[in-house]
Write a sequence for this structure.
C-alpha cells in the first residue's frame, strides 16, 4: 500500500514510534524508504525522551498512561493480560510498579476520572503530568518534512 501511494506522488510516513519493535519497524521503514516518528515509544513523542527519562529516574517503578491508553485500557491491558478473567493476577503484573503517571495530552474531567479508576484498579497512586500536544504536533511536522526529502537525505531517528 505504501509503495502504491508513493507511486501516485503522495508523501507517506509512519506516524508510529518504535513502541517495542526493537528496531523491526525501522527495518521496514528503511526497506520502504519511509520516515517514522522519532522515539523509542509514544511516551517520548508526548513528553520528550528527557522528560520520560526524568520520570523513571524519579521513580523507576512508573507505569505510564497516555490519553489513548486510558481510553483503551480495558481492552488493551485488562483483557489482553487476562485480568478480566483472572483478577488475582493484578498483583503479579503490577507488583513492581510504585505509581501511575498519566502523560495528559488533553486534560479533561472524563479522562482524569478514568485515569483515577485505572490507578485504583492497579492499586497505585496517580500522578498527572500535563504534556499537551505541542511536542506531538512538532514531531508530526518534522515527520512530514522528513518524508518529503529523498531517503538518503533523511536524518537519523
Amino acid at each position: 500500500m505504501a509503495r502504491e501511494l508513493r507511486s501516485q506522488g503522495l508523501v507517506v510516513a509512519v506516524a508510529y514510534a518504535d513502541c517495542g519493535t526493537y528496531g523491526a519497524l525501522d527495518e521496514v521503514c528503511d526497506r520502504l524508504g519511509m520516515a517514522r516518528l522519532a522515539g523509542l515509544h509514544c511516551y517520548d513523542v508526548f513528553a520528550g525522551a528527557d522528560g520520560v527519562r526524568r520520570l523513571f529516574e524519579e521513580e523507576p517503578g512508573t507505569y505510564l498512561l497516555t490519553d489513548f491508553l486510558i481510553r483503551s485500557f480495558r481492552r488493551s491491558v485488562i483483557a489482553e493480560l487476562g485480568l478480566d478473567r483472572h483478577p488475582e493476577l493484578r498483583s503479579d503484573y503490577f507488583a513492581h510498579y510504585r505509581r501511575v503517571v498519566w502523560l495528559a495530552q488533553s486534560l479533561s474531567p472524563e479522562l482524569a476520572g478514568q485515569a483515577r479508576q485505572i490507578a485504583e484498579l492497579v492499586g497505585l497512586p496517580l500522578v498527572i503530568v500535563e504534556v499537551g500536544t505541542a511536542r506531538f504536533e512538532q514531531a508530526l511536522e518534522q515527520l512530514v518534512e522528513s518524508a518529503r526529502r529523498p531517503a538518503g537525505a533523511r536524518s537519523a531517528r
About this structure: The chain is about 50% helix and 10% strand.
